[in-house]
Amino acid sequence: MENKAAILKRALQREKEARRQSERILEKKSAELYDLTLQLQESNNKLQKLFIATRSELTGVFANLVDAYLMMDLSGNVLKMNEAAIALLGYNNISDDNLNILDIVVEEDKEDMDASFKLLLKDGELKDLKIKILTKYNTVKILHINCSLMYNEAKKAVAIQGIFRDITKQREDEQKLLSSENRLFLLIEHLDSGVLLQDELNNTVLANKRLYDLFNLPERDVDNPLDSQDIIDIIEDKDLFEDNEAIKERYKELISNRVEVLGDELVLRNGKVLERNYSPVFEDNVFKGHLWSFNDITFKKKYRKSLEAERQKYSNIIANMNLGLIEVSVDNKILMANQTLCKMTGYEESDLLGRYGADLVYKEGVDAIEKVRANRKNGISSSYEVVAYTKKGAKRYWLVSGAPNYSIEGKLLGSIGVVLDITDLKNLELQKEALVRKLEKSNAELQEYAHIVSHDLKSPLRSIYALVSWLKEDNEGKLDDMSMQNFALIESTLEKMEQLITDILNYSSAGANTIELEQVNTSAVIKEILQLVYIPANIKVNLDTEMPVIQAEKTKIQQLFQNLISNAIKFIDKPEGVINIGIIPDKNVYKFYVKDNGIGIEQKYHEKIFEIFHSLNKSKDSTGIGLSIVKKIVTLYGGDVWVESENGNGTTFYFTINKKIRT
Amino acid sequence: MKGIVFTEFLELVEEKFGLVMVDTIIEESNLPSNGIYTSVGTYDFAEMLQLLTSLSAHTNISIDDLLEVYADHFFEVIKRNYAFFLEMYTDPIELLASIENHIHKEVIKIYPDAELPTFEVVEKTQDSLVMIYRSSRAMYHFGLGLMNNTFDHFNTTATIVTEILKEDGTEVKFVIQKT
Fold it and tell me: What part of B 5-44 touches A (C-beta under 8 Å)?
């Protein structure tokens, strides 16, 4: 029982203590609540003041608002508008009854406006609505509208208020800006250079089509180039370059230095060469990004290389050729001279540069040069000979071939001359000319001499002949037969001598170089000869019926045939002699022949017989001149003469005369 | 741990085992609060553990079973004092699924310093619910009891299978299937 009482006592004690404990807790909580209430009241007061201040401020703001301010009921009927709104719309809610904002929206925007209005009623506010309205003055204006619902104390929407801003002008400007931006974009887009613009964080801002093509970049989205990644990284990751690592290093260097670098060359694995230009973009000294441009210079580069090779080639040719090369300005000052020219003149190149080209040339050449220069100005090329002097004063002959030299723009810069030293050639030519003159003179003299000699020899011969004739007549019957026979021998020797002189005269006149051509009927000429010369009765002459008419000198043709026919008659030893005269058809020449059945000529004499004074037979009427006259005449007519014969079996003389004789 | 858990626990002990048992377990335990509890106070959870252990020893009932019985009692407290929680729901699954997001939020309003277990909903259908209980107190049997009471309250039945995810009982999966 006592135990139970103790337990109860303890339980009670616990209960009391618990009650005190909870009271303490509650008192503490109560105090906390009181403090909190005080704080709340204070902030409430503050808020109230702030609210009043803000409201009065706002009232002032609305009244003086630069932007148009409208208050409407929930159907859009205008309840209130400020001065700016009246100025903007032209309408006045006081004078214009039943002004509804929905009514002044232009037709094309009405649907848009209705939808926006519904949205406003649903969401409580509407921002950035752009709509066209027709003002009272019948002008269309683009308005930018922000509006919201106004609520009463019960949180019920009662009205709409809106700020209207005229953005017509701004819109126009925007349009203009847009179109000029478009133009710029198009321009960049179609540039032949790859263009890349990055912002300061290396994000891609702009990358044109060419850039994608150059680096073979994946599908392209114009509005979002490569999701703003660092294109340079992408390009480098593609491992396109010959020396990828070096290019990466260089890239890091460029973007960290931020200094303009133009004309870096990048060699791609596919053989292309790109030129890279880098410019950092600064605005008011603030770094804004990187601008890159890439040009494909593969072609240019190759072209330049081959051009260089060509240039080298021609330089070598010019330096090593055996011709002097000289370039002079318009006023004839030497601008360039190659080694050969220096050698030719004996001057150093440095001596020559700046000197007048004419100084090198002997006086007699200067006039020619002046004339050439005048031609050169009219663009005429020419070749001419000048006499020049070397540094040591030696006289040299030059053949100069000059041509005008034009600049790329087509302006005359001067001329370029190729010079060949023809002194040796020239000397030979001069020697030859002198020789020919001398020869002509001595030839004439010789002819004259032969003529005179033959003529002068004839008259003493005739005297001797007369004297011998007289001696013979006077001593007829007094001297014995032997002596008389010797007189006859002297006479015949004298006749032969006279014949000899006549022939020499003929020969020298056969060399006369005046040829007067006429139509010569060979058949007629031969018939004349056959009447003139003595033909023994045992000899029969046959003449071809088809003898031609040729262009020649009649007397010479006559001499020709007469010599050959006389020869044939002379050497016929047969009881029945036959002489055939004729022609063998030929395309280019008249090929005549005179054939006999006489004694014939041994093979070894076939050449010799045509030499002067070479008679095979010591017959009284053979002087050994006839065939050499034949040869001379045939040669004169561009022909040839030869013989076919066997000893004892007759002889055939052939000769040709050119069908076209040059006069 | 909130005082109400202690006061209601002792209330239950007094009701089921008499005042002597209340006095015995308080006197036996070494309690910093000396067994003086008020529902608006906050006390160390170790005290609850001592009281439970002591009661289990004297009654030969396991702590888990005790917790389930306590849950029955506590559910009556809820019905009596906080009926509006229950009135907000018409379906026990819905109620259980919203412990974390709704009921515990309301509890925090009344007891801002309460340390509450978490119930993560893993899977939920019309008739089933899988939740993971996490609490350093490892009192999932208390939770299990409350759940059973909830189904009773809505006049429905359900099988609730528990799966211990951490051996000390601080993480337990509840698989609830309406029957």
Answer: 7, 19-20, 22-23, 26-27, 34-41
Fold of A514-658: Heat Shock Protein 90 (3.30.565)
Chain A residue at shortest CA distance from B40: A22
A9, A21, A29, A30: which to substitute to probe chain B, counting the most B Cβ within 10 Å? A21
- For chain A, the structural domain boundaries read 1-64, 65-172, 190-302, 321-421, 428-492, 514-658
Range(s) of the domain holding residue B30 = 3-61
How many residues can be counted in chain B? 179
* pLDDT digit string, tens, across residues A288-328: 888 888 888 888 888 888 999 998 998 888 777 888 888 88
Pair (B43, B88) in one structural domain: no
Contact A21 B36 (CB under 8 A): yes
Q: Is A98:A72 a contact under the CB 8 Å cutoff?
A: no
* Burial class (CB within 10 angstroms; exposed 0-12, middle 13-18, buried 19+) of A447: middle
pLDDT per residue as tens digits for the range A11-32: 888 888 888 888 888 888 888 8
Superfamily of structural domain A65-172: PAS domain (3.30.450.20)
What distance in Å separates residue A39's CA from the closest CA in chain B? 20
Chain B: give the shortest CA distance to residue A4, in Å. 8
Interchain proximity B40–A10, CB inside 8 Å: no
Q: Top-level CATH class of A190-302?
A: alpha beta
Q: Are residues B160 and B76 in the same domain?
A: yes
Q: Are residues B77 and B11 in the same domain?
A: no
CATH 3.30.450.20 fits A321-421, yes or no: yes
> For the residues of A618-630, what is the DSSP string, one character each?
--TT--S-HHHHH
Q: What is the pLDDT of residues A488-546, one digit of tens each?
A: 888 888 887 887 787 777 766 665 555 567 888 999 989 888 887 888 889 999 998 88
Q: H-type helices in chain B, by residue range?
A: 3-17, 19-28, 45-59, 63-81, 83-87, 92-97, 104-110, 140-153
Q: Assess contact for A643 and A651: CB atoms under 8 A.
A: yes
Count of A-B CB contacts under 8 Å: 33
Searching chain B, which residue's CA lies closest to the CA of residue A1? B20
